[in-house]
Design a protein that fits this description.
The chain has 309 residues and is of the alpha/beta class. It is built from nine helices and 15 strands. The longest helix is centred in the middle third of the chain and has 14 residues. The chain is globular. It starts with a strand and ends in a 6-residue tail after the last strand.
């Protein structure tokens, strides 16, 4: 089968399209013929070696976390899935990734794609969707009537978080660029503010929860928006516990584990990630360049060439 492999850390040019064996399907696993694979910022951080020492992956490895495709083999003890099921999943970073024609994934990490949802849209959801769930449900335990400030609301994680927070009954204030205001409002945000305000003093106080997907100056400006005992959660930069203590609030870094039951719930809730563009697997390096340079315009998805066993 064809797969994108990384033999040495570096720029997008280290992504190589190579031939590798189709992986074996072990007990509890699904072998999935991948149709579409989502691209996430963590992919190029791993490729560049920026996560070395934190998320070590032995070289060479195949990048990619999100995927959607068709089940072509079942390992022993698998329940709840059948051959030819349409599935999507977020693959744990310790195993080989999803930029490949076939992927083996534990059945516990996968969920069936609802009728009417495309492979592309299904491949876009697993990682950002489960990150939003981890933050707002597992960590914040968001309740009806709570107020939440979401930075990067036009992004993949932020966009799902807006939808999820509204379904949980929260009052949502979203930060996004001025030209994305209408889209973020359509996701359900009660207020949408220009993200540039997040680099100075935010005109907000008394928030129960802040979800920071940006870091840096945006995170620095967010502490004062929380009420006493409030919670700041971050996905890209670990918040300072010392700074949280000074502000009289709590803080945590969102660490997401793949869970098929959570993904099934997200799909049932009809939460979606907007896909900005699709590219063929052979153009993975170009996709990484666009993502790193901020030119993608949103979530990207790689399309695998049609193939049969």
């Amino acid at each position: 089968m064809k797969a994108i492999r990384i033999f040495a850390y570096g720029g997008p040019e280290v992504l190589q399209l190579t031939d590798v064996p189709i992986p074996d399907c072990g007990p509890g696993d699904l072998l999935v013929r991948v149709v579409a694979a989502g691209i996430n910022p963590l992919d190029w951080k791993l490729r560049a070696g920026a996560m070395a020492g934190t998320l070590d992956k032995p070289l060479p490895f195949t990048p990619g976390l999100d995927a959607a495709g068709v089940v072509v083999a079942l390992g022993g003890r698998v329940q709840g899935f059948s051959l030819e099921d349409r599935v999507c999943f977020y693959a744990n970073t310790v195993q080989d990734g999803t930029y490949a024609e076939y992927v083996v994934v534990p059945a516990t990490q996968a969920a069936c794609i609802p009728p009417g949802l495309s492979f592309v849209d299904a491949a876009a959801l697993p990682t950002p969707g489960q990150a939003a769930w981890t933050a707002l449900v597992d960590m914040a335990r968001l309740q009806p009537g709570n107020s939440v400030l979401i930075h990067g609301a036009a992004g993949a994680v932020g966009g799902v978080a807006v939808q999820l927070a509204k379904q949980l009954g929260a009052y949502v204030v979203a930060m996004a660029s001025a030209n994305r205001t209408a889209r973020v409002k359509a996701l359900g945000a009660d207020e949408v503010l220009d993200y540039r305000d997040g680099r100075a003093a935010l005109p907000l106080r008394g928030m129960d929860v802040v979800l920071d997907t940006i870091g840096g100056e945006v995170q620095d400006a967010s502490w004062c928006t929380l009420q006493a005992g409030g919670l700041l959660l971050a996905t890209s930069m670990a918040p300072s516990q010392e700074r949280a203590q000074q502000a009289g609030v709590r803080a945590g870094l969102v660490m997401t584990q793949p869970r098929g039951n959570v993904l099934a719930t997200l799909l049932a809730c009809q939460l979606r990630v907007e896909v900005a563009r699709t590219l063929p697997m052979a153009d993975a390096a170009e996709a990484h360049r666009l993502g790193e340079w901020g030119l993608a315009g949103g979530k990207m998805v790689l399309l695998m060439p049609p193939r049969v066993l």
